[in-house]
């Protein structure tokens, strides 16, 4: 990708001279044009989203007007006439930004008092922050649980609140984004109570329709600044397909070398050459594996090099995370295997190369990760190593899908009743809810309130609804959709706490017999106690990793919309999913060879959610030459591949969605394929699938048809999480079935002009196997924690 020259501008003259001087002292003589435009909007009191590339100076675009306003406020009699709140999706990013703000504002003396307020902040510092800090950096979780419920203690801060900075706002998508949208509405309501009306300044990676997404997130009109005027060094972007091995997988399918092993080799080679690199991987376990393999290979070359590679992921203790960040900043570490905890804007300057182990789920994330290389304007290398799955394989063979397509729209649904209900309760506890407040929380609020009254969570007295319980309403929900108490991972011999695993992921990642990695050490799970949320582990050295498998059944609760597709139908509506983890596979670490399967006895979990599904008729099956013997395999193969391809059309991850296929579904009385959201109440992904169905299923058909394998492999129709052991599957039948289905697709997409419709599927359980979103999580009562988030297999 060729280099690009930058375009300069001048700061608005309303920015204080002292701030301009501080920015110059930091080495920035003139702003880029997009920085000056964003600052102008902020000073005009207009909420603005800056959606430009990585390392384009977004931080300076919002910091300059913020610092100038804080400087004005420091001249008030109480020294705090203006305050600003900064929200980051991760603790690491907030800590990094705090460092940057302190360095930049150093010439301004004590006028700017920046402080991080999160779960790691010592209690003795918290009161000082509430009383004296004028720039508070936190995360949406702490805002939800710590700041808003105790707003009287924050009253002087909220009264003076001028700006709310929402950094990396493209990450607020799906259920998490919907929760954050409601947290921001609660914040706006309390600010209004204290007489403040803050301006929102949002920073996003390049995204489609950033102003639309920012408006849905904040509930306010937002101006868009998306013309990136910063310079860019040349970026060499390699698409890397691992080679086929001599081994055979399920049903004799050819097996490629794993993306994890290939990424570890690349990280090793880059480290040996002294090149500062980060390998991004989607799962915590994958990050640990890459760092372990790289350390072992580096030790064979030079023992001192092994210490210069580490893993960075969520779930570490705070002091471990901070030590790794410092080592990376100082250059003590040359190579890092990281989950997306590091993807988000932590300023790691001077990186020469980025290795991405598996497509990260969205083009926005891909460019965000690739953009970490060459931050100082020098040339850089990015390598996308394809995993053995339909989407990755499709992308390395169709680079135009990455390089010629705009990034996706951010999908979130703040009106999801499962999201809205707990926030209405939390808002009522903060301040009794009145009819005037309902507009702020969206059109669904008026329908949800009577349900909360019936559940005796809220009670109406005179003109307002009040919270009725003793417990804190903010504890009703986990805004990251992780659902329930995290499971503590404890070393059996010593009782030492190693870390935690999200409740929704426990069934798939710390079941009995699972391999668990922590800081380069390997453990085997001895037992999982779901009642006490404790997994006991002991150190071990297995030669394999483990992958959980589950089964799913599904029933249609309500069909919201259906469209004829020839004789078949494309539908969207509400479903109930029952899911159970039934076994796990043991796979060899480097080759991915399956060594065996072990049964598990874990309880089923139910989930009410949203789904898209499609049906086909007997006439269509005849035209596609699908007889009863191959029908189950053809539906099953189409279901797997369509789930694998959906992340290209919706900002989801394969592990956010699930699917089921069945030759005769009791609710539709037809062969049906379902694809559903893996979160209570839905996350917007199935709706996006419905609206882009023709384009989505066309790409699915193309991915299966163009794969070189004979009868199906992980690159096209096999799924890593299929509860039926990828049996039955019929590759050619799936291609013929999708061809006939697409012939009947309407010319116009269902609700999205210009994109064609296609279908995705429906069906429950014991037959052609379900591919399920990880552990659907506890049942569906409004206010219950939103559902699953399972880590992908490494």
TrEMBL record:
Compositional bias of kind Low complexity: 745-764
Membrane spanning stretches: none
Swiss-Prot/TrEMBL keywords: ATP-binding, Helicase, Hydrolase, Nucleotide-binding
GO molecular function, one term: helicase activity
Domain Helicase ATP-binding: from-to ranges: 39-225
One matching Pfam family: MZB
Biased composition (Pro residues): 765-794
Residue segments, region Disordered: 745-794
Domain called Helicase C-terminal: residue spans: 262-418
UniProt-listed InterPro entries: DEAD/DEAH_box_helicase_dom (IPR011545), Helicase_ATP-bd (IPR014001), Helicase_C-like (IPR001650), Helicase_put_actinobac (IPR022307), HRQ1_WHD (IPR055227), MZB (IPR018973), P-loop_NTPase (IPR027417)
PANTHER family given in the database record: ATP-DEPENDENT HELICASE HRQ1
Name the UniProt record assigns to this protein: DEAD/DEAH box helicase
Organism, as annotated: Streptomyces prasinosporus
């Amino acid at each position: 990708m060729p280099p690009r020259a930058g375009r300069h501008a001048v700061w608005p003259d309303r920015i204080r001279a002292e701030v301009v001087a501080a920015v110059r002292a930091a080495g920035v003589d003139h702003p880029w044009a997009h920085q000056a435009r964003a600052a102008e909007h902020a000073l005009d009191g207009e909420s603005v989203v800056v959606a430009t590339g990585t390392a384009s100076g977004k931080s300076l675009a919002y910091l300059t007007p913020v610092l100038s306003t804080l400087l004005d406020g420091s001249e008030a009699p109480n020294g705090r006439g203006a305050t600003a709140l900064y929200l980051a999706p991760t603790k690491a990013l907030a800590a990094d930004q705090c460092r940057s703000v302190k360095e930049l504002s150093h010439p301004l003396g004590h006028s700017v008092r920046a402080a991080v307020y999160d779960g790691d902040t010592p209690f003795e510092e918290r009161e000082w922050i509430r009383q004296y800090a004028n720039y508070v950096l936190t995360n949406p979780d702490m805002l939800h649980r710590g700041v808003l419920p105790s707003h009287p203690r924050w009253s002087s801060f909220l009264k003076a609140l001028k700006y709310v900075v929402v950094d990396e706002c493209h990450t607020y998508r799906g259920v998490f984004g919907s929760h954050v949208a409601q947290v921001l509405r609660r914040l706006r309501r309390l600010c209004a109570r204290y007489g403040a009306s803050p301006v929102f300044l949002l920073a996003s990676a390049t995204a489609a329709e950033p102003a639309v997404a920012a408006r849905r997130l904040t509930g306010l009109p937002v101006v868009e600044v998306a013309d990136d005027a910063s310079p860019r060094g040349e970026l060499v972007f390699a698409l890397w397909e691992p080679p086929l091995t001599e081994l055979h997988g399920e049903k004799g399918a050819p097996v490629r070398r794993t993306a994890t092993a290939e990424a570890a080799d690349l990280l090793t080679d880059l480290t040996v050459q002294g090149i500062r690199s980060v390998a991004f991987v989607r799962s915590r376990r994958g990050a640990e594996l890459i760092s372990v393999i790289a350390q072992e290979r580096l030790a064979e070359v030079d023992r001192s090099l092994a210490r210069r590679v580490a893993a960075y992921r969520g779930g570490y203790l705070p002091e471990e995370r901070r030590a790794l960040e410092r080592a990376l900043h100082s250059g003590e570490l040359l190579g890092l295997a990281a989950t997306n905890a590091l993807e988000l804007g932590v300023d790691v300057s001077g990186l020469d190369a980025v290795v991405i182990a598996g497509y990260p789920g969205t083009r926005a994330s891909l460019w965000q990760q690739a953009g970490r290389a060459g931050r100082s304007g020098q040339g850089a290398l990015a390598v996308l190593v394809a995993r053995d799955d339909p989407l990755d394989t499709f992308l390395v063979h169709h680079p135009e899908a990455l390089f010629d397509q705009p990034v996706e729209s951010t999908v979130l649904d703040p009106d999801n009743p499962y999201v809205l209900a707990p926030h209405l309760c939390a808002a009522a506890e903060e301040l009794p809810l009145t009819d005037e407040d309902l507009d702020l929380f969206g059109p669904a609020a008026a329908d949800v309130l009577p349900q909360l009254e019936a559940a005796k969570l809220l009670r109406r007295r005179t003109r307002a609804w009040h919270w009725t319980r003793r417990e804190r309403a903010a504890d009703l929900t986990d805004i990251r959709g992780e659902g329930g108490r995290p499971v503590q991972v404890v070393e059996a011999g010593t009782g030492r706490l190693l870390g935690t695993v999200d409740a929704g992921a426990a069934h798939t990642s710390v079941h009995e017999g699972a391999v668990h990695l922590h800081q380069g050490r390997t453990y085997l799970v001895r037992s999982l106690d779901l009642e006490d949320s404790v997994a006991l582990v002991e150190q071990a050295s297995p030669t394999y990793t483990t992958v959980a498998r589950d089964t799913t059944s599904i029933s249609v609760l309500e069909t919201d919309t259906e469209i004829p597709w020839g004789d078949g139908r494309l539908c969207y509506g509400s479903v109930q999913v029952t899911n159970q983890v039934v076994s796990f596979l043991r796979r060899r670490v480097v080759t991915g060879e399956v060594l065996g399967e072990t049964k598990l006895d874990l309880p089923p979990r139910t989930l009410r959610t949203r789904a898209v599904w499609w049906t086909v008729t007997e006439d269509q099956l005849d035209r596609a030459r699908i007889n009863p013997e191959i029908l189950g395999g053809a539906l099953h193969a189409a279901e797997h591949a369509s789930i694998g391809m959906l992340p290209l059309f919706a900002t989801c991850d394969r592990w956010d969605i699930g699917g089921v296929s069945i030759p005769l579904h009791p609710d539709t009385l037809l062969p049906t394929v379902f694809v559903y959201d893996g979160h209570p109440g839905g996350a917007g992904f199935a709706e996006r699938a419905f609206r882009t169905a023709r384009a989505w299923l066309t790409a699915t058909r193309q991915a299966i048809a163009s794969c070189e394998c004979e009868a199906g492999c992980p690159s096209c129709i096999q799924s890593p999480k299929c509860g039926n052991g990828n049996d039955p599957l019929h590759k050619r039948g799936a291609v013929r079935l999708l061809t006939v289905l697409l012939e009947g697709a309407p010319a116009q997409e269902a609700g999205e002009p210009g994109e064609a419709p296609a279908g995705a599927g429906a069906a429950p359980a014991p037959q052609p196997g379900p591919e399920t979103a990880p552990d659907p999580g506890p049942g569906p009562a409004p206010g219950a924690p939103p559902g699953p988030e399972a880590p992908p297999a490494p």
